[in-house]
């Protein structure tokens, strides 16, 4: 953030108030951003762990006032110290800023701040007073001057954001502490309503999300992260169990229009949901005969039951969204025609093509050689991809590879193997899915890579592989596998399923000029607005990011819906304050993996009950059983409500 006048953060202090630039205690741990947005340079920042001053235009007392008013507004009121203490602190600082402070106020402010910090029960009260205490420690003269001379401070211009480590890690930025707290209090419908302000498919995401939120849960610093994903599933299942339906309110924009959406996957249906709630006329074009895209054909029913997926999309259709199935854009109707006929077009297609392995024989059309995406598509549509085959080798280390091996048992394959060129530690698949596959007795072969497909008369008979060792790290940060000369060996198999990656098919762009794409066959879009180089066309999901998490696709669909609405209403596609803060928090991390939470009392998380491995590997029935009401409430009580309040002077 340019030259720093003063900062105290994470225990480090930088003090250059005398202009020497030498009075520094401890290393600077944070790369302070210089701007919140292009037209708003940052003058100061105050947050949960301290503050930084860049300009002497910002008075520390006024900064504290603005910050404490934001903290007060976030107090839930469920514990007296935080509820009353933050109110008192805001009042004291408000009086000081208006020239009405008393000398005793300074001492009282510190006493209240320390009391709230030590006795509050949630993150708001625990961290909220800390910057005030640090300001009193390092700027006592400024506080005394304001009080003694009855100085009236000119209020600064501030931007305020409320987040939490889990919220910031979530691509769609759900208000996780709030919906978890609603579950804790037994208000399950309220929790679902909070989720659906951003995410229309909680039952789907609550089953297959890769849980970036839980990886940034502060509870994990003590014992285990809160089961955020399964709590989301719980409230969605509760609604189904009681035969309730969402009651969505449509609030039409000042001007509404017609929007075409390509793809009824997570990105497409999320975009459609938000546009329909804003009163727009939405038509979705889907080349499959059912909704869900890759989540329908690429995720087996034992992980995501088809009725859950269809049911949540049907609720979106009730908002007036029309879905035209069995319609391929680029073939049955041209993208250029949609661009002409509609006010905006959103492309949310998935990565439904398989990446090549570059091994001998993969392009020969051998019987028994089946790309992973095609393998799962057939299985999810009720077909055995290769009934003659009984001995399967799947190549890859991601979730698609794991789904392929686990599904193989369920279609009565006798011998199931997974080949991966690195070790188990480097596998990108969800750890939970890996463990489940191990329990189901999939045979894992690590540090192994395929060399050649062995065939007879055009039929797969085996797979020649070579052993690997790990060398130096590559661009991904993982150690690069290196072949061990002379270590070739052969798998005796009749089915080879490559699942090493997926690619996007951009053939729908034929006849549409000027859309910028990457070398990896994905759209180039603005990271926030999702607008392509053709103003009326937007894109998100796998066709923007490449194969990625389902929740990331949902987040992209939501952002695109906001942008499309603004464009139809003739408004500039500007970054919102929320978007600017998300960029800000990429530098000023909200979660500290090394934070010591002290002795808060450990309580392990509740895991879902599952079918026994020898039972579940023979059925496509859902393998995980959801929380009961007592289990969900108990799990929700483990949440620390770790809200972080950030105030930036601009």
In CATH, the architecture of the largest domain is 3-Layer(bba) Sandwich
Q: What is the top-level CATH class of the largest domain? A: Alpha Beta
- Helical fraction: 25-40%
Strand order of the largest sheet: 3-2-1-7-6-26-8
Report on the architecture of this protein.
- With 650 residues, this protein is of the alpha/beta class.
- The protein has four domains: 155 residues, de novo design (two linked rop proteins) (Up-down Bundle); 79 residues, Alpha-helical ferredoxin (Fumarate Reductase Iron-sulfur Protein, Chain B, domain 2, Orthogonal Bundle), CATH 1.10.1060; 164 residues, FAD/NAD(P)-binding domain; 149 residues, FAD/NAD(P)-binding domain.
- 36% of the residues lie in helices and 17% in strands.
- The chain contains 24 helices and 26 strands.
- Strands 3-2-1-7-6-26-8 form a seven-stranded antiparallel β-sheet, with helices on both faces.
- A hairpin with a 5-residue loop joins β18 and β19.
- It is globular.
């Amino acid at each position: 953030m340019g030259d720093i006048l003063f900062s105290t953060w994470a225990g480090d202090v930088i003090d250059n108030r005398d202009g020497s630039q030498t009075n520094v205690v401890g290393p600077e741990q944070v790369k302070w951003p210089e701007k919140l947005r292009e037209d708003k340079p940052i003058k100061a920042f105050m947050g949960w762990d301290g503050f930084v001053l860049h300009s002497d235009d910002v008075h520390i007392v006024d900064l504290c006032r603005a910050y404490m008013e934001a903290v007060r507004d976030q107090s839930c009121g469920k514990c007296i110290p935080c509820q009353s203490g933050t109110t008192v602190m805001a009042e004291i600082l408000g009086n000081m800023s208006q020239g009405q402070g008393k000398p005793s106020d300074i001492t009282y402010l510190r006493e209240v701040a320390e009391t709230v910090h030590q006795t509050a029960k949630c993150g708001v009260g625990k961290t909220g007073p800390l910057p005030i205490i640090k300001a009193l420690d390092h700027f006592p003269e400024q506080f005394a001057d304001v009080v003694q001379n009855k100085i009236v401070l000119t209020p600064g211009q501030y931007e305020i954001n409320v987040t939490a480590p889990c919220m910031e890690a979530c691509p769609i930025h759900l208000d996780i502490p709030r919906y978890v707290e609603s579950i804790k209090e037994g208000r399950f419908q309220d929790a679902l309503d909070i989720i659906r302000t951003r995410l229309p498919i909680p039952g789907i995401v609550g089953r297959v999300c890769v849980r970036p939120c839980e990886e940034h849960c502060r509870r994990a610093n003590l014992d285990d992260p809160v089961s955020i994903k399964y709590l989301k599933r719980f409230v969605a299942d509760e609604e189904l169990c009681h035969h309730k339906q969402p009651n969505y309110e449509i609030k039409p924009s000042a001007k509404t229009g017609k929007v075409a959406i390509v793809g009824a996957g997570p990105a497409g249906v999320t975009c459609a949901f938000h546009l329909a709630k804003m009163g727009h006329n939405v038509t979705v074009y889907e080349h499959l005969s059912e909704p869900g895209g890759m989540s329908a054909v690429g995720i087996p029913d034992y992980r995501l039951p088809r009725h859950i997926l269809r049911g949540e999309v049907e609720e979106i259709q009730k908002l007036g969204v029309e879905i035209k199935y069995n319609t391929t854009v680029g073939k049955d109707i041209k993208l250029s025609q949609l661009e002409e006929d509609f006010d905006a077009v959103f492309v949310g297609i998935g990565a439904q093509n398989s990446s090549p392995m570059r091994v001998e024989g993969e392009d020969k059309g051998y019987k028994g050689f089946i790309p992973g995406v095609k393998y799962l598509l057939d299985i999810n549509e009720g077909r055995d991809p290769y009934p003659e085959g009984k001995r399967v080798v799947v190549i890859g280390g991601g979730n698609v590879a794991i789904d392929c091996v686990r599904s193989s048992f369920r279609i009565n394959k006798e011998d199931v193997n997974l080949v991966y060129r690195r070790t188990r530690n480097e596998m990108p698949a969800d750890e939970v899915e890996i463990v489940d596959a191990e329990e189901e007795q999939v045979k894992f072969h690590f540090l192994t890579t395929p060399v050649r497909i062995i065939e007879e008369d055009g039929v797969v008979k085996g797979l020649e592989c070579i052993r690997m060792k790990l060398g130096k790290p590559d661009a991904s940060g993982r150690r690069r596998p290196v072949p061990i000369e002379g270590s070739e060996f052969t798998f005796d198999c009749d089915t080879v399923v490559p699942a090493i990656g997926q690619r996007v098919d951009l053939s729908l762009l034929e006849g549409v000029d000027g859309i910028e794409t990457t070398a990896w066959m994905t759209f180039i879009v603005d990271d926030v607005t999702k607008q392509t180089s053709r103003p009326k066309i937007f894109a998100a999901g796998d066709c923007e990011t490449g194969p990625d998490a389902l929740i990331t696709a949902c987040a992209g669909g939501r952002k695109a819906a906001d942008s499309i609405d603004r464009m139809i209403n003739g408004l500039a596609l500007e970054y919102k304050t929320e978007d600017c803060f998300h960029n800000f928090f990429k530098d000023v991390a909200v979660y500290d993996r090394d934070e010591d939470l002290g002795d808060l009392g450990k309580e392990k998380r509740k895991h879902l009950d599952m079918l026994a491995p020898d039972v579940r590997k023979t059925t496509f029935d859902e393998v995980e059983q959801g929380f009961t009401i007592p289990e969900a409430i108990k799990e929700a009580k483990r949440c620390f409500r770790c809200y972080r309040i950030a105030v930036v002077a601009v």
